[in-house]
Design brief:
Layout (H helix, E strand, L loop, with lengths): L1 E7 L4 E8 L14 H6 L3 H12 L4 H11 L7 H16 L4 H7 L12 H7 L5 E3 L7 E5 L1 H9 L3 E7 L9 E7 L5 E9 L4 H17 L7 E4 L3 H10 L4 E4 L1 H12 L7 E3 L2 E3 L2 H13 L1
Parallel strand pairs: 5-8, 8-9
Antiparallel strand pairs: 1-2, 3-4, 4-7, 5-6, 6-7, 10-11
């Protein structure tokens, strides 16, 4: 079937012209051909299991593998599972924005009503700080007492990095870590922020300094970040005596992304796809230089 729609800009009316009234194939009776039929074919228990596995952090592909281990005849594809989990997420939000829902969510373990996420953090010793005190939440910072003890023992280096699209709230998550004397990473604190502006980073770093002052934690010698200009600007004002360093991993990833287009495409060597020798030589020389 072939149909053409036309809009008359003068009269603002649509016209429909049917150029070919018949389909070029017969109708499909298989449920696997249509998303709505595939989803309708699963049971309520399977639907609940998909939502449960998604909340546990499994990807659609991992969920599909788990389902097919239980029932090899499951007609779903990964896109169907992604649509189901997104529908479940919207149902959970119940018309709220993700960040407002963050303060209203029930405890999934006890199902106690009126137990907000912030209260749950307080009950488990995280001492959360949020802004503003009333109204829609824009920023949330929390740190565990055990992390403070470890940070106080190893205050020389701080690592700050934002992660994206890694939480159901859709908010940048600022991850704050320290490094121990034996090169082990210590999780210091976490902060949900509504954006990546100087006002957001200034608020988080001010809360971090409050923790330092309250627990007599020494000033960091070095702070490592990626090239987030708003964060770097705030570091100069909040930690003026600390040396700022760019993260080597982020630098290397940026060099890899920006330079690969200037070299020949990957080649197949001994049955395996590998970088072109010229590109590999460049990266090797870059790593030696850097």
């Amino acid at each position: 079937m072939k149909v053409v729609l036309r809009l008359d800009k003068i009269s603002s009316t649509w016209s429909v012209d049917v150029l070919e009234p018949t389909h070029n194939h017969p109708s499909s009776a298989a449920i696997t051909a249509h998303p709505a039929h595939r989803i309708a074919a699963i049971s309520l228990d399977t639907h609940a299991l998909i939502c449960s596995l998604s909340r546990a952090g499994l990807s659609p592909g991992q969920i599909l593998t788990a389902l097919r281990e239980l029932d090899p005849t499951v007609p779903l594809i990964p896109k169907d599972i992604a649509n189901l989990t997104q529908r479940d997420r919207l149902k959970q939000l119940d018309g709220l924005t993700p960040i407002i829902w963050l303060l209203k969510v029930y405890n999934p373990l006890t199902l106690l009503p009126n137990l907000t996420f912030v209260q749950e953090l307080q009950d488990t010793g995280f001492n959360p700080q949020h802004y503003p005190e009333t109204g829609p939440l824009q920023r949330l910072f929390f740190i565990h007492p055990t992390s403070i003890i470890l940070w106080k023992q190893h205050p020389d280096v701080l690592l700050l990095d934002c992660t994206y699209k890694t939480n159901r709230y859709g908010m940048p998550l600022l991850n704050i870590c320290a490094i121990s004397d034996n090169n082990m990473v210590i999780q210091v604190g976490l902060a949900f922020i509504s954006g990546e502006k100087e006002v957001d980073y200034t608020w988080v770093l001010a809360k971090l300094r409050d923790i330092m002052d309250q627990n007599t934690i020494e000033e960091p010698l070095s702070i490592v970040t990626d090239r987030e200009l708003a964060l770097i600007t705030c570091l100069y004002s909040q930690f003026p005596t600390s040396r700022h360093l760019l993260c080597r991993w982020h630098v290397n990833m940026n060099v890899l992304a920006k330079t690969k287009g200037w070299f020949p495409s990957p080649v197949k060597i001994n049955g395996q796809i590998q970088r072109h020798p010229q590109f590999q030589e460049f990266l090797s020389n870059w790593n030696k230089t850097f």
